[in-house]
Design goal:
The complex is a heterodimer. By secondary structure, chain A is α+β, with helices and mostly antiparallel strands. Helices cover 52% and strands 18% of the residues of chain A. Chain A starts with a helix and ends with a helix. The chains are: A alpha+beta, B alpha+beta.
């Protein structure tokens, strides 16, 4: 603490340099926060992924599978509960505004309760079969509130009367969760399915289920695939745990990419701060010599330089992470909808990494100047010969 | 002395003294190298994927999908409808008089990435006209699949992303293992995909309907007549679209998405580099205060002095950008990458490098402006006296 006035006077000696360095470091840590924060979100999703939740889809795409498949899966020993899922792909007003209504059956709160689709939330759809539940993100995207009407056009999924317009009442706004960063619109499978032409009824695109025992769910998934391997609808089944483990975004390895970018930002400021501190020490070489003459030990001088380097790094890191947290909330408004890249979260791990990186940058920046200072010849430094 | 000559002389003096300010100058070079290296590395994905998409679309071909379909996989065309489509006017004729049209299949096949993650690849079905429609198709090794048999051929680039995509490997379909008998190239998205005989594949994956119909237009202008015939036919509910427009349309979403991310990240980094540039140039101006004052005393006007500061920043910044672009190019240009099922070559094109250089100039001008004004307006006498 008693060094503080010394450090302060060193930093304010060239205020422009100090401020610009701080701003640069802040920006680099904003980027750091966004990148490592994105990793943190992927980690959170992977950590929250349940081993006992299993997703199953038709193995070779096509136009879905009969709902009977969901019932057959429900009868397989080890399966606790199955929810049948289908989607209406369409648009709102203009084909550019793609929208998806996910139709799920009454078991959805049992399978996805921990994602926020609770029994209480789903009860509104049980009471009014024509309604939908929107997540906050989707409600914001379509400017809807409870009681509004949501109208969607789907040329691919016609109604029994030949119409392509689907109209739903927004019954509730549900919570968003990082596992589904696009948000969701949930409708009642039975109601929507019955509104379709008879020939198209009873189809689903996906079945999601819970296993009785998380420990054997991988085997259960394999068993489901085996059971249907020679049926009319071969399946591809995967546990949520496995599906989320890779930190994968449509095949892109997110972690190496984000780490690379964050590292490039750090490298950029390392050069800047390193250069700044080297200059600062060079300019005040004689002052340091004076300090040493006064009895300051090498350790004390080292401390001074490290702190001078660390101060802008640590403050910049703190500011940067705060700005990143604010920016992260603006991302959904800036991104084209529909890709669902999860939002960065400034978890304690991210903050710890930012703090550690700030110190590493400070130490690396200070290393060379310190070496010079500890080897200095006091007499020649005082006389200005170096 | 004319202004340009003055700028030249002052800048020359600056550049000759850069050696003395090497480390400080490197801040700009390294900063810009990081910004442009990251920007171009990210854009190489968009650029490469976009190029592959646009390459796949040929304005001389038209694709027919069911009304409202946003992808071939989501489209469905019944067999009798496909026959109606193939009889429409505007389709080129094969030597035997039959229409140059091919109803196709487009299905996902579960595959494993080289690193073990699960993914889907695309399995296409070609009919008898599939290859005639695509003059860009060439076998690379092995042989063509035989119609009516359970055989596949694979795009040569698939093996760069997915396991078991070589000639001789087997792909599991519902009715058993299908051998890969040949490898091909088309120079576009198909280079990552699997192809088999449409009818045999349909039987295997139990598809009653085709996904889409691809036709060769009798001329570039024939599209309107073709489209009119299909859209006015009450028996059909389809969207005919020029194949080049289709790939433009389906690439819009991802290219916007990636551009927002790439430029967003690059803007943040560039702001950081800008502060670094300001810092360096202020220091440079301060260090050369006396020298500048001397020049001013000799009669050099303020503008060339200011200009020389910006030029110095621009030279360092562009140097950094070129280093960054060079690194991005060396690491990623021509490397095979993938997004979802799409396999393509990452591309750092000359146009992208140009964008990088423009960014560098912009940052240098912004970062050099204030220091240059300071250099030009500092009172001469005061600067000469300063130590």
């Amino acid at each position: 603490m008693r060094y503080l006035p010394l450090i302060w006077s060193a930093l304010t000696r060239k205020p422009a340099r100090a401020v610009l360095t701080l701003l640069s470091v802040t920006v680099a840590f904003t980027l750091f926060g966004l990148m490592i924060g994105l990793n943190a979100t992927f980690d959170e999703v992977a950590a929250k992924a349940r081993a006992d939740r299993i997703f199953t889809n038709p193995r070779f795409g096509g136009n879905g599978m009969p709902i009977a498949v969901a019932r057959q899966i429900a009868a397989i020993p080890g399966v606790k509960v199955v929810t049948a899922v289908n989607v209406i792909l369409g648009y709102v007003q203009d084909p550019k505004n793609q929208a998806v209504v996910v139709m799920v059956d009454d078991n959805v709160p049992k399978v996805f309760g921990d994602w926020g689709v609770t029994e209480e939330l789903w009860d509104v759809v049980r009471k009014d079969r024509t309604g939908i539940v929107m997540s906050g993100l989707q409600a914001a995207r379509w400017h809807k509130k409870v009681g509004d009407t949501f109208t969607m056009i789907s040329k691919q999924m016609k109604r029994a009367d030949g119409g392509t317009t689907w109209t739903f009442k927004v019954l509730a706004i549900g919570p968003d969760f990082p596992q589904n960063s696009n948000g969701y619109i949930l409708g009642n499978y039975d109601y929507i399915d019955k509104a379709r032409p008879l020939a198209d009824q009873g189809k689903i695109g996906e079945a999601d289920l819970l296993a009785n025992d998380p420990a054997t769910s991988t085997e259960l998934a394999a068993r489901i695939d085996r059971t249907f391997a020679n049926s009319a609808t071969p399946l591809v089944t995967i546990t949520e745990k496995l599906a989320r483990a890779g930190g994968d975004f449509a095949g892109l390895p997110i972690k190496p990419i984000t780490r690379g970018i964050a590292l490039a930002g750090m490298f950029m400021v390392l050069f800047l701060t390193g250069n700044g501190i080297a200059e600062s020490v060079r300019e005040r070489f004689a002052e340091f010599a004076t300090l040493k003459t006064l009895g300051f030990s090498d350790r004390a001088v080292t401390m001074l330089v490290v702190l001078e380097a660390a101060l802008p790094c640590v403050i910049g890191a703190a500011l940067g992470v705060v700005i990143a947290a604010v920016l992260a909330r603006q991302i959904p408004a800036m991104m084209p909808p529909g890709f669902g890249l999860p939002l960065p979260t400034m978890s304690p791990v991210v903050i710890a990494w930012a703090a550690a990186s700030a110190f590493i940058v400070a130490l690396l920046s200070a290393a060379l100047p310190i070496l010079r200072l500890t080897r200095m010849d006091i007499a020649s430094a005082l006389s200005g010969r170096t | 002395m004319n202004i340009l000559r003055q700028i030249w002389i002052v800048s020359l003096i600056n550049f000759r003294s850069i050696r003395l300010r090497l480390w400080r100058s490197l801040v700009i070079v390294v900063g810009m190298a990081c910004v442009i290296g990251i920007l171009l590395s990210m854009l190489s994905l968009t650029e490469g994927m976009l190029a592959a998409f646009l390459q796949t679309g040929d304005p001389g071909r038209a694709l027919v999908v069911s009304a409202g379909s946003q992808s071939e996989g989501n489209s469905s065309i019944a067999r009798d409808k496909a026959r109606l489509i193939m009889d429409a006017p505007g389709i080129a004729k094969a030597p035997d008089g039959s229409p140059m049209a091919d109803p196709g299949i487009n299905s996902g096949v579960p595959v494993v990435r080289l690193d073990g993650r699960r993914a889907y690849n695309i399995l296409r079905g070609f009919g008898p006209k599939g290859i005639m429609l695509r003059p860009e198709f060439h076998l690379v090794s092995g042989r063509m699949f035989r119609f009516g048999t359970r055989e596949l051929i694979v795009g040569y680039a698939a093996k760069s992303q997915f396991k078991d995509m070589n000639v001789g490997d087997k792909v599991i379909l519902p009715d058993g293992e299908w051998p890969i008998v040949g490898s091909f190239t088309t120079g576009d998205l198909l280079d990552g995909q699997l192809i088999g005989d449409t009818e045999t594949v349909m039987k295997a994956i139990r598809r009653p309907a085709y996904n889409s119909v691809l036709v060769r237009l009798s001329s570039l202008n024939a599209f309107d007549a073709f489209k009119r015939a299909l859209t006015t036919n009450p028996a059909l509910s389809v969207d005919p679209i020029r194949q080049s427009d289709w790939y433009k349309k389906i690439s819009e979403g991802f290219s916007t998405f990636f551009n927002v991310i790439a430029y967003g990240i690059a803007i943040i980094m560039a702001v950081g580099a800008l502060f670094g540039c300001l810092n360096t140039m202020y220091a440079a101006v301060a260090a050369r205060g006396r020298e500048i004052a001397t020049l001013r005393a000799l009669g050099y006007s303020a503008f060339p002095v200011a200009m020389s500061v910006i030029l110095e920043a621009a030279a360092l910044s562009v140097m950094g950008a070129l280093i960054g672009a060079g690194i991005a190019w060396a690491l990623y240009n021509g490397v095979e990458g993938s997004f979802g099922s799409n396999v393509f070559k990452l591309t750092v094109s000359a146009a992208l490098i140009g964008i990088g250089v423009l960014w560098a100039v912009a940052v240098a001008v912004l970062g050099g402006l204030l220091p240059s004004i300071r250099a030009a307006t500092r009172p001469v006498v005061e600067a000469l006296r300063a130590t």
